[in-house]
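Hi all, long-time lurker, first post. I run a small reading group and we've been trying to get comfortable going from sequence to structure in the token notation. Rather than ask abstract questions, I figured I'd post a concrete chain and ask someone more experienced to write out its structure so we can walk through it together at our next meeting. Sequence below, copied exactly:
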Amino acid sequence: MRDVEAEALALLYELVGIDSVNPGLVPAAAGEAEIVERLRSRLQGSGFITTVVPAPGHADRPSLVAVAPGPAEWPTVVLNGHLDTVGVAGMPEPFTPRLDGDRLFGRGAADMKGGVAAVVAAAEHLVASKAPVRPVLALVADEEDASLGCEAVIDALPGLGIRPDVCLIAEPTDLALCRSLRGFAVVRVSFPGRAAHSSQADLGVNAITHLGRLVCAVDERAVAVRAGGGDLMVTLAQGGQSPFVVPDHAECLVELRTPAGCSSAAALDEVRLLLEPQWRATVELVASRDGWQLDDTGPAADLSRRLGEELGTGPTFDAPYWMEAPLWQQVCPTLVCGPSGGGLHAVDEWVDLHQVRALVRALITVLSGWRPDAD
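-- Answer (accepted) --
Happy to help. Here is the structure in token form:
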């Protein structure tokens, strides 16, 4: 009998030891190539058909799709996780896994190599035990930045003959089922000014003054936005070129978080309402993603309920941040559940090994007999 829990933990140690920092966040960082190759080799040896999917225009940013053998009538379950991590500034040994009781420390341990190790080990066990289900591992690049990997993998699925019945994303949720997550939008606001010697400020137009007034307006408006379940703030501001010169340009990024069901594209109108006409500011939507919520009925709701019964949890987690569930929801019903710990994106990141083991057990138990049309 395979000790699948021990295999998951051994794989987790191995994955944390691989530098997969996202180069979109940290220039010249390692990226996902090494970790994809390590997992591709392993999964091929476990009987999976593997395909490396590069991100368009980024051949050095691969993702991995690994398809289990099985007849077409078996339910197809995508098990998704991201392989990239944020940076490691301030961490003395970020890729040396350190164990403290049931906590494993290291970059990516919780976000989200613990979840990746759990779904890989569970999928391998399902194949080895010939369970009547076809797990498809979608292990993607770039989730921490622009979701290039997820979008490339989703585009590749039809060509690989994959039509998923459901997708489970093993992002950290403390093993609670994710009920919803918020969307976001980033708006760039640019303020023109007119340069002049600072001793004759009345001859110029101070762009930073206009920027400052917008910052105050955003803070005031944020009170009402937060009351509605969202958030609004300025996250970056810059302007001017040197001392003794009235600044002729300034700009900032305004970030809006939106509740599930609200369009993040409305951020442009939200920001425009705060601008004064004399500022002659221009606004540009830099990025936006809508929120998501778990289906009330159907395959994801059913699988969520069964998984929750096994784990002793329920759909109680409303994520304040964005994950890739809305992208997968366009392909098939989607749910989010995975092991957590602490220190996400911080210098003391860790994952709870008890939760990693519990997810492995629950996935094997639930998926071994699951059908998408189950009552």
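A couple of things your group might point at:
The CA atoms of residues 230 and 258 lie 5 Å apart.
The radius of gyration is 23 Å.
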